[in-house]
Amino acid sequence: MTHNPIINQRQQQILDRMALDGEVKIAELKDTFDVTEMTLRRDLEKLEFMGLLRRTFGGAILVGKDIALQDRTGIMMDEKMSIGQLAAQLVKSGDSIFLDGGSTTLQVSKYLKSEMSITVVTNALNIAAELQAKQISTIVVGGMLLDKTSTLVGPIAAGSIAQMAFDRVFIGTTGVSIKHGFSNSNMHEAEIKRLVIEHASEVNIVMDHTKYGLKDLFSFAALEAVDRIISDRLPDLELDGILKEASVQIVVKN
C-alpha cells in the first residue's frame, strides 16, 4: 500500500493489516503496538474521518461499496459460520425458503443438511452451486449478474420473486440502525431484499455484530418488518431495546 503522508507510521501499518485481513481488532492492535487503547481508538477515529475505514464494536472494518464477495468471505469467518449454523437449524422439512447473496447467507447454505426435503430459491450463483452438491431442490431466479457479489438482480429476478411465497427467508445486510432500519450498499440488491420480504411469512436477517449501528445508502426494511436477527453478539443496550420494541427477536449462540 502506498504511504499516505497525512498519517503516521502506526496508522499506515493499521491500514496495511486491514488490506490483508479486511478488519482489525483493538485487542490485537494493543499486542502489536506499544500504545494505549485510547491512542488506538484515536487512530481509528482519524482513519474513519478520512474515509479509510469504518469503526465497529472493538475494532474496524474496510470501507468500500460493493466489496467483492471473495474479499468479504474471509472476514469474521468464525462468526459467520456460527450464524450460518444457527440459521440452518430454523429450517424445517417441507419449507420453501429464500437465501440472498452474501458471505453469511452462504454459510447458511453450507449448514443445511444434504438431501433435505425443502425448496430453496436463491439469486446467488455460489449458493446454488453449494445446494446442488447437497442435492437440495433449488430454484435460481434469472436476471442481471453482478460480478462482485455473484448475485442476479433486476426486473427479471424481481418478476420471478413476485410470483412466489416463502415460509422463511434469510437475508444479509450491510447495517442496521435505529433511524435507517436495515440497509445495503447496492440499490439493485436492496430492491430484491425488499421484494423478498414482502413475499415472506418469516423474515430472518443474518449478520455479524460489526453491522450493529451502521447504515448504508439504500434502506430495504424498517425494524418492524423483520422477525428475527441471527448474529454472534447482542447489540448495545439502546439498539437492543429499540429492536425489542419493534418485536424483533435476536438469536445468538450461547
TrEMBL record:
Alphabetized Pfam families for the sequence: DeoRC, HTH_DeoR
Keyword field: DNA-binding, Transcription, Transcription regulation
PROSITE patterns in UniProt: HTH_DEOR_1 (PS00894), HTH_DEOR_2 (PS51000)
InterPro entries: Carb_Metab_HTH_regulators, DeoR-like_C, DeoR_HTH, NagB/RpiA_transferase-like, Tscrpt_reg_HTH_DeoR_CS, WH_DNA-bd_sf
One MF term in the entry's GO annotations: DNA binding
Entry superkingdom: Bacteria
The HTH deoR-type domain, residue ranges: 7-62
SUPFAM superfamilies: NagB/RpiA/CoA transferase-like, Winged helix' DNA-binding domain
Protein name: DeoR/GlpR family DNA-binding transcription regulator
